[in-house]
Design goal:
It is globular, with a radius of gyration of 22 Å. Helix 1 packs antiparallel against helix 3 and helix 8 packs antiparallel against helix 9. The chain has 250 residues and is mainly alpha-helical. The protein is built from 9 helices and 5 strands; from the N terminus they run E-H-H-H-H-E-H-H-H-E-E-H-H-E.
């Protein structure tokens, strides 16, 4: 059953303002650095940890990981990276923190899909990554009044009121399906280039151009498929014009 586009849903009446994509990327890199530090500390402490049972050694890495992402998001409103760059995670429907269960699901989706999930923030109406959409959360600026206007974003006027859209979960699922298809085509193209041009010659030579084109095409598809998916332009999750309006395609 089709759902109204996000434009038909009331925005939170609290004046939420959103960070630029680059700010979220900085937060992500800071979190990755924190995980690397933890992992190195765990490796260095393995000799000492071997005096304990296996479950203690496993807990020594799992507990900090659980604390850095889901627990911090649920209890403080953000990860270490979020707090450093001045953003917080909140419920998409009201100005409150999300619970631990949703924070755990959000962290699991982010870990599973990584950058592919974050790309959704480039096209979402509330600048939401895929893991934000699925868990009904969003990342907002803590204190937008202290930032220059260029760093403060409002929600995007993205979807027209005269269309009905598939539910967000369907658009996200179809987008990932298209991503998988695009990646399969990309891998097949590389295999064909290798079989036809590189392996017989023991080097790609002029076929290097074909490899570059394939890499560029795949990268562009990864970046543009989310926009088409969220706008309801992909087969499997197309938008439908309301019957009460004059039918025409935009």
């Amino acid at each position: 059953m089709n759902a109204p586009g996000p434009e038909a849903t009331a925005e939170p009446a609290d004046g939420a303002r959103f960070p630029r994509f680059a700010r979220r990327v900085r937060a992500l890199w800071l979190d990755v650095l924190a995980f690397v530090v933890l992992y190195v500390a765990w490796i260095l402490g393995l000799d000492w940890l071997y005096q304990f049972p296996p479950f203690v050694r496993i807990a020594a890495i799992l507990v900090p990981v659980m604390f850095l992402e889901p627990a911090l998001v649920a209890w403080t409103g953000g990860t270490l990276g979020h707090h450093v760059v001045g953003v917080r995670v909140r419920d998409a429907r009201a100005d409150r923190r999300i619970g631990f269960g949703r924070a755990f699901g959000r962290a699991a989706l982010k870990a599973a899909f990584g950058w592919a999930s974050l790309v959704f923030a480039l096209v979402g109406r509330r600048h939401q990554a895929a893991h934000d959409v699925v868990t009904r959360s969003m990342v907002v600026l803590k204190d937008p009044g202290r930032l220059p206007p260029s760093e403060v974003l409002e929600s995007r006027a993205q979807e027209a009121l005269d269309y009905r859209y598939p539910p967000p979960w369907q658009r996200v699922a179809v987008t990932f399906a298209w991503w998988i298809g695009a990646t399969a085509v990309y891998v097949l193209a590389l295999l064909m280039i290798g079989a036809l041009g590189c392996v017989p010659r023991r080097g790609c030579g002029p076929w290097t151009v074909a490899v570059i084109i394939a890499n560029f095409a795949w990268t562009m598809s990864v970046l543009t498929i989310p926009a088409f998916g969220w706008y309801g332009r992909l087969r499997g999750a197309r938008r439908v014009r309301n019957a009460a309006l004059t039918p025409h395609e935009t």
